[in-house]
């Protein structure tokens, strides 16, 4: 299949128009007329994952995080980003990135997070807009909010998420005996939304990258926060999008990167 046709299929369900203005959810690198025979899904595009793609004969890497989002002055083998671009061009590897367009979309990353918890009924936390041609004109936006069928104590929620996310650490802000009836989730860096979650009646916000002063403000507000880290809440991207990409790719082989790692080591 030509890259052009594959991207047209992806955009039907996950339009790039959903993304924030500062983002780069798009074809970051590639030839639209390239024949695609093998796709690799990954959270990040790094030297580690591109070496893996070269070794496995991958034509297209689909990542969550854009790898071209800031100014690039040099494309040379001895620079970090430039060297990565240079390596991908030399090995004829294209890169398509599904970032905030995927975060905001229905059946995107935030919905998948709730699916892991077995929560079916949810609504958008931070409504961005709506499009006549997308999802029957329903609103889209970042984060999800849901009422739990049965209340959960905080220890139960933490244990369940550690199991589903395969993460063994988290940071928690709030009372040790918290009982949760309503929950908000923003994968990645969603710490700025704790006040909005509180205003919608949520007992806790699950996200990553919470800063010290945000944690103190949340305590004063009486809002609990559960921080599984940026990697911890988003490394599930590849699994979350695998079935859809596989379903629209015909005979193209779709694999998941085995080289995604959390850059932080907890000591």
Overview of this protein structure:
This protein has 267 residues and is of the alpha/beta class. It folds into two domains: 97 residues, NIF3 (NGG1p interacting factor 3)-like (Udp-n-acetylmuramoylalanyl-d-glutamate--2,6- Diaminopimelate Ligase, Chain: A, domain 1, 3-Layer(aba) Sandwich); 128 residues, Udp-n-acetylmuramoylalanyl-d-glutamate--2,6- Diaminopimelate Ligase, Chain: A, domain 1 (3-Layer(aba) Sandwich). Helices cover 34% and strands 25% of the residues. The protein has ten helices and eleven strands. Strands 5-6-8-9-10-7 form a six-stranded mixed β-sheet. Strands 1-4-3-2-11 form a five-stranded mixed β-sheet, with helices on both faces. Helix 2 links the parallel strand 2 and strand 3. The protein is globular, with a radius of gyration of 19 Å. The N and C termini lie far apart (46 Å). The mean pLDDT is 96.
Specify the structural class. Answer: alpha/beta
Overall geometric form? globular
- Largest sheet, order of strands side by side? 5-6-8-9-10-7
Taking Cα atoms only, what radius of gyration do you get, to the nearest Å? 19 Å
Tell me about the largest β-sheet: 6 strands, mixed
CATH class annotation of the largest domain: Alpha Beta
Strand content: 15-25%
**CATH level-four homologous superfamily name of the largest domain:** NIF3 (NGG1p interacting factor 3)-like
**Topology order in helix (H) and strand (E) letters:** HEEHEHEHHEEHEEHEHEHHE
Note the total helix count.
10
CATH-derived topology of the largest domain: Udp-n-acetylmuramoylalanyl-d-glutamate--2,6- Diaminopimelate Ligase, Chain: A, domain 1
Given as residue ranges, the uncertain stretches (5+ residues, pLDDT < 50) are: none
């Amino acid at each position: 299949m030509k890259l052009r046709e594959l991207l047209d299929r992806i955009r039907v369900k996950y339009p790039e128009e959903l993304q924030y203005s500062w983002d780069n959810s798009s074809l970051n690198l590639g030839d639209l007329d390239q024949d695609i025979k093998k796709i690799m899904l990954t959270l990040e595009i790094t030297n580690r994952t591109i070496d893996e793609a070269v070794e496995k004969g991958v034509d297209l890497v689909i990542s969550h995080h854009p790898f071209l989002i800031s100014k690039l002055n040099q494309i040379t083998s001895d620079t970090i980003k430039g060297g990565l671009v240079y390596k991908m061009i030399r090995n004829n590897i294209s890169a398509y990135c599904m970032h905030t367009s995927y975060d905001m979309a229905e059946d995107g990353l935030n919905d998948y997070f709730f699916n892991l918890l077995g929560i079916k009924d949810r609504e958008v936390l931070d409504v961005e807009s709506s499009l006549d041609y997308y999802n029957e004109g329903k609103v889209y936006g970042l984060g999800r909010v849901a009422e739990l069928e049965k209340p959960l104590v905080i220890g139960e929620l933490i244990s369940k998420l550690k199991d589903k996310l395969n993460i063994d650490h988290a940071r928690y802000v709030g009372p040790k005996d918290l009982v949760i009836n309503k929950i908000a989730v923003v994968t990645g860096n969603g710490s700025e939304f704790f006040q909005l979650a509180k205003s919608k009646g949520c007992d806790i916000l699950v996200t990553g990258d919470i800063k010290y002063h945000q944690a103190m403000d949340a305590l004063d507000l009486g809002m609990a926060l559960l921080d599984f880290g940026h990697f911890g809440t988003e490394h599930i991207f590849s699994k979350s999008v695998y079935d859809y990409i596989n379903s629209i790719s015909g005979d193209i082989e779709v694999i998941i990167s085995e080289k995604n790692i959390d850059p932080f080591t907890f000591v």
